[in-house]
Design goal:
The chain is an alpha/beta fold. The chain has helices at about 5-15, 35-55, 65-75, 90-95, 140-155, 175-185, 200-205, 220-225, 250-255, 350-355, 390-405, 430-435; strands at about 20-25, 30-35, 55-60, 80-85, 100-105, 125-130, 135-140, 165, 190, 215, 240-245, 265-270, 275-280, 290, 295-300, 305, 315-325, 330-335, 340, 345-350, 360-370, 375-385, 415.
């Protein structure tokens, strides 16, 4: 099918009645198409508003996927810089307004308008919370985003079914923006306006007559089989994409029961865009990563270095440990910035987590440094079947297990035992969310 740039789209490349998106009707009784004519009108309105109001930088605060897609398209075609927030919390939006000249919210119902005359120079700033919790914007030009869309079509179009694109991830982060909005729009595939992150939304989204494209995260893919009877879904997804972190090999194999082609994992970052992909199966080598076709990789002092037009004018060194594995593929070794110092001793947080998860009755574990008069480590442990019921026995077993490999300084001093790890809407596990479990008033759980 190929993909079209936004400029080509607004030069009449789509018929007026071409379905751009589908809207689920109330209570899941059906779906309503949203056509190219409607989309062009909404995008034209957004572009015209930006031109009339002036200002180069616009905050796009649209929680509805349809309004977001039309607003983003209109602002880009008007040559504006579009700021996308990390979330839609009121304080977050108020803070970002200081970086913008205007704000574009939900568009409402628009039925008339002309396609805007494109102006070069549009770009998007994806704002994230950052590793320290301080918001930071990463700019991507329209040309870079369109290059990524073209690359995704080259690499993965062959296996894409003709059903709608369904997302469990938010559309305002780079992965969701590309896979849920920009790629479908450019390729002429309709996207579903409603999110499918909760079990009810997921079932409604998959109540289709054709296999859908599912855009998900590892956190959602690990939880959904326990929340939804996938064997009873009339039409399972035809293709599943996952990004935001590595998918557990057991989860990847489990999904092959419903999606025989497996889950296509995308490794990347907001700074670089997509970097590599893999599709885990029973073969050990399937855990290796293959660079995307427009990316060149190198390795510097154990870190991955990415070079591509989409990553910027110079090679970018990441804080991801990696090593070449032959045949052009590579192996990820974890975050380099997750090695900390306590009393001048280097401690690898991933090693502590892996040691905890080696216990058969530990389902997941995360270790986080906690600030205080004397910094200590906190461990968040999700227990699985067979965990000791008596908390004193559990505490002693955890400490004894870790003490076999780590000295006393490296052992976590504070513990929490939630039902699940606090992943955010992107499927990310942030330092802030983990540390929040140890704040005053949070559920405490047993403390070894």
């Amino acid at each position: 099918m190929g993909v079209l740039t936004l400029t080509q789209l607004f030069l009449g490349a789509r018929s007026p009645d071409h379905p751009v998106a589908w809207h689920l009707t109330p209570r899941g009784t059906g779906r309503t198409p949203r056509t190219w004519n409607q989309f062009a009108a909404a995008a034209a309105w957004a572009a015209d508003r930006a031109r009339r109001s002036g200002g180069r930088r616009w905050l796009l605060a649209c929680q509805q996927a349809w309004d977001f897609a039309a607003g983003l398209t209109g602002l880009l075609l008007a040559g504006r810089t579009v700021l996308l927030p990390p979330n839609y919390l009121p304080q977050t939006l108020r803070d970002l307004e200081h970086h913008a000249d205007g704000v574009l919210g939900e568009l409402g119902t628009l039925t008339a308008g002309q396609g805007p005359d494109p102006v070069p120079g549009g770009r998007v700033e994806f704002w994230t919370g950052g590793s320290t919790g301080t918001p930071k914007g990463f700019a991507r030009s329209l040309a870079q985003l369109e290059a990524e869309v073209a690359m995704l079509e080259r690499q993965f179009a062959r296996g894409i079914p003709d059903g709608p694109v369904v997302g469990t991830v938010p559309h305002h982060h780079i992965y969701g923006c590309l896979f849920r909005i920009l790629w479908p729009l450019a390729a002429g595939r309709p996207f579903l306006c409603e999110p499918a992150g909760d079990p009810d939304g997921f079932l409604r989204a998959l109540d289709q007559t054709r296999p859908v494209v599912l855009v998900a995260s590892p956190a959602h893919l690990s939880r959904l089989p326990a929340l939804v009877d996938l064997d009873q879904v009339p039409c399972p997804p035809g293709v599943v994409f996952s990004s935001g972190g590595p998918l557990d090999p057991e989860d990847a194999l489990a999904w092959r029961r419903w999606v025989p082609g497996g889950v296509v994992e995308i490794y990347g970052s907001t700074e670089t865009g997509g970097i590599a992909w893999r599709n885990q199966g029973p073969e050990p080598e399937s855990r290796l990563w293959t660079p995307l076709d427009d990316v060149t990789l190198s390795f510097r002092e154990g870190a991955l270095v990415v070079a591509s037009f989409r990553a910027g004018p110079r090679p970018l060194r990441l804080e991801d440990g990696a090593e070449p594995a032959g045949g052009g593929r590579f192996r990820l070794l974890g975050r380099l910035d997750r090695t900390i110092k306590l009393d001048e001793k280097r401690i690898s947080l991933p090693e502590l987590e892996q040691a905890l998860e080696a216990l058969p009755w530990v389902a997941r574990a995360a270790v986080v440094p906690l600030a205080g008069p004397r910094p200590v480590l906190g461990a968040v442990v999700v227990l699985g079947p067979g965990a000791p019921a008596e908390r004193g026995v559990l505490a002693r077993a955890l400490r004894a297990h870790l003490a076999q490999r780590f000295d006393g300084l490296a052992l976590p001093k504070r513990w929490r035992f939630p039902r699940e790890l606090p992943f955010d809407e992107r499927g990310k596990l942030t330092v802030q969310a983990l540390a929040g479990l140890f704040q005053h008033g949070a559920p405490r759980g047993p403390r070894p």
